[in-house]
Amino acid sequence: MKLYNTLTRQTETFQPQDGNILGMYVCGPTVYDHIHIGNVRPLIVFDTLRRYFEGFKGWNVIHVQNITDIDDKLINKSIESGETVEEIARVYTDSFFELLKGLGVLQPTHTPKATEHVAGMIELIQGLEKAGFAYEQDGDVYFRVDRFEGYGKLSGRRLDDQEAGARIEASSQKENPFDFTLWKSAKPGEPKWDSPWGEGRPGWHTECVVLSHQYLGNHRDIHAGGHDLVFPHHENEIAQAEALSGEPFFRFWLHNGLLSLGGQKMSKSLGNFDYAKNVLAKYDPETVRYFYLSRHYRKPLDYSEEGLQAAQTAVTRLRTMLTDVESELRTATGTYGNVGSAFVASLSEFRSRYIEAMDEDLNTVAAIGVLQELVSATNRYRAESTAEDRMALLDAVALLKELGEPLGLFSTGAVRESGLEDGLMTLLIELRKQLREKKEFTLADQIRDQLADLGVTLKDTAQGTIWSLS
Which of 65, 214, 272, 309 has the highest Cβ tally under 10 A? Predict the structure, then answer.
């Protein structure tokens, strides 16, 4: 497995540092609003990486994703709405978990909230202050960036090349305009905690350092998030963690490219965004996942309705082959002959090429190409095979499901293997067949049309009628 490491700017061979146990920290949401479609990308990308690690590498992934439930954005929302910060955080945390479920994203192993770990953040800040890396001014505490020699190694930014301004808090209290906030003194009406520097709250950059250590311990293999987090957030995490320990914080840093709309970066501040829940209201989760994974995760992705519609068409083609074969061979038994054996033997090449693609820095674009080629080969075999050799098609279906699982495909909308469901459909198909034999076509068509209204498609083939869920 090779992954591009932002820290070294190289594609490197990756293995967990402790046997088959792998620790992965992915920066989570600030819960002041619903998740927009740009923030969906890291959720899908790193869920896919986790699924591949677990399903194809056999690694046990400890997946941590934090919930930032105290932040300036939450406080500003509270002032605007009149709701408490706690109420706002609760509503949008619930919304976030609903979105994960709707996207088919696996629940992280741990989803700690920032407010539950303030004591640990205070302890970290005290340690930095004692070591000379932090200082207090009027109840605020800042990190001395010029004391940490490695500052800028993740982003490639040199302090003397930067200008105070974008994403840097300028303050007359700071010794250096690039020093970042570790603790903020409380203003009237804001959430606050007691600390050695007075009442206040932790800064954003301290949160992930504490949570990484607490929930991953020494299993700090991968830290991931969107490319916009490289600086200052991830840079500032490294500074705090390594200033105290003198050891590398995480071995690999992975960052997905950002979403754009018409070539312009998508963000709430620019107003050119849509909520992820609105997209899921129009498209099924497999279509959404396919769309995001049809571009390499490190490259920018331009969002468009045309792209989602193309993804929907592609997913439908994959599903159609799968459901048609399963429906056609649902009750079939027996083995296949020499022709079928040769076809099954040819399937191993698809699996090898898929693994090769995924092992090369999670190249889901090439992996999806393998799935499409597998469907093409299977459809050709379907058209040519006869008699018992058709049973070999089930091996192709099984492989398609296996390869689709890390991508989050075929978990919804595929044929459900329910004995009751099968029995009822067999009964209805037989009834419709008898009506057609009696030339009672109106009643036969009513069965077909009413099933279509329920989301069940009937397809008449040379081998008989097969059904699938639309």
Answer: 65
Q: Which residue, chain included where needed, has tokens 């890396």?
A: 133
Domain boundaries, the chain: 2-282, 305-404, 419-469
pLDDT for the residue 415 = 36
pLDDT single digits (tens) 31-85: 999 999 999 999 999 999 999 999 999 999 999 999 999 999 999 999 999 999 9
User: In angstroms, rounded to a whole number, what is the distance separating the alpha carbons of residues 360 and 126?
Assistant: 42
246, HSE (Cβ side, Cα atoms, 13 Å): 1
As assigned by CATH, the class of the 2-282 domain is: alpha beta
Structure token pair of residue 357: 């693609």
- For the chain, report the end-to-end CA distance as a whole number of angstroms: 37
The domain defined by 305-404 folds into: Four Helix Bundle (Hemerythrin (Met), subunit A) (1.20.120)
Condensed to tens digits (0 to 9), the pLDDT of residues 330-366 reads: 766 778 889 999 999 999 999 999 999 999 999 999 9
d(CA 204, CA 69): 10
Nearest to 391 by CA among 464, 453, 331: 331
